Amino acid sequence: MKAKVISGILGALFGITMLILQFTPVFSIVVAFFTFMANFELLRTAGVKNKGIYALTSVAATAIPFILEYDLTQYLPVPTMIVFLLYVFVLVLMMLKSYETTRFEHVSMALVSSLLVPYLISLLIAIRDFGDFPRSTNVYLTLFALTNAWITDSMAYFFGSKFGKHKMAPKISPKKSWEGAVGGVFGNIVVNMIVWGVFYLLYKLELINKVMFPLWLVPIASVILAVIGMLGDLSASAIKRNYGVKDYGTIMGEGQGGVMDRFDSAVFVIGAMYAFLQIYGCIALR
After folding, report:
1. Rounded to whole angstroms, how far apart are CA atoms 40 and 57?
2. Higher pLDDT residue, 278 or 17?
3. Positive or negative: CA dihedral 172, 235, 252, 51
4. Mean of the pLDDT values across residues 73-91?
5. I need a surface site. Which of 74, 95, 138, 227 has the fewest CB within 10 A?
């Protein structure tokens, strides 16, 4: 319980910090640090020993937030797909050069750890800049993207520890229960409704602009993102089980694991949140 409380506090502090800094260059720097660490932890978990792969993927994972922040792809002399194919080609060459210690699964993990995961985390930048909204709405959307996974996880742990009897995936994550999952979804809805109410109150007090995100959409998005977050959590746990490790890293402190241990469900939620906003924008804003 103590570890979960500490994790929740750290998550809340991180969320508050991101809200304060999201419209400054520091935001992309912090995101880049997390993408760098996520890549490193995933490669280490997979048992990658090739230093060339570490070096190349570290550059790619760290660069992605800045590419999104400053739209750097517009300066490429060739299409982005060509750059991607060259990147894959170089990774394959590294595998062939060190085939005795570098396997195809290492290259596959490198693509996931240096491109997919960093891109999903970096979508925080795209969410922050989404639509022609007032700044208060962008703050709300960033908060919504960051907290859904952690609220669901904390609530699921609380309800599961109190009422959990039916295991959800005992071979992947023995402590997770169906009762906890239901409690996590319900708790996520309640908290998100309260947060929306706080923003609405601030608007009524004329402290911020109106949040252009309707109340009726909050519980729908909360349920969808909560379920996706739990699937992300289970997926990350399955990877750890496959490689026989307890935590991805130790950077968050004793008992807290690494960046991927804290961002496992958030990675999925951030990506889903961006997709949700794209769909909402196509339907409701046009």
Report:
1. 9
2. 278
3. positive
4. 95
5. 74
- pLDDT for 256 beyond 80: no
Q: Which of 180, 187, 198, 273 is nearest to 234 (CA)?
A: 180
Which residues make Cβ contacts (< 8 Å) with residue 265, sequence separation at least 6?
Answer: 149, 150, 152, 153, 229, 230, 232, 233, 236
3-state secondary structure of 169: strand
- Do the beta carbons of residue 226 and residue 185 sit within 8 Å? yes
Rounded to whole angstroms, the Cα distance separating 52 from 62 reads 16
pTM recorded for the entire structure: 0.90
What is d(CA 21, CA 58) in angstroms, rounded to the nearest whole number?
A: 24
CA–CA distance, 103 with 279 (Å, rounded to integer): 39
Interval 12-39 mean pLDDT: 85
Q: Rounded to whole angstroms, how far apart are CA atoms 122 and 247?
A: 23
What angle, 0 to 180 degrees and rounded to 10, lies between the N-to-C axes of helices 135-163 and 217-243?
60
Q: What is the DSSP string of 102-125?
A: --HHHHHHHHIIIIIHHHHHHHHH
Tens of pLDDT, residues 144-174: 988 888 888 888 888 888 887 888 888 888 8
- The yes-or-no verdict on residue 286 having pLDDT over 60 is no
Predicted local distance difference test score (pLDDT) of residue 253? 58
Give dist(CA 267, CA 10) in Å, integer: 17
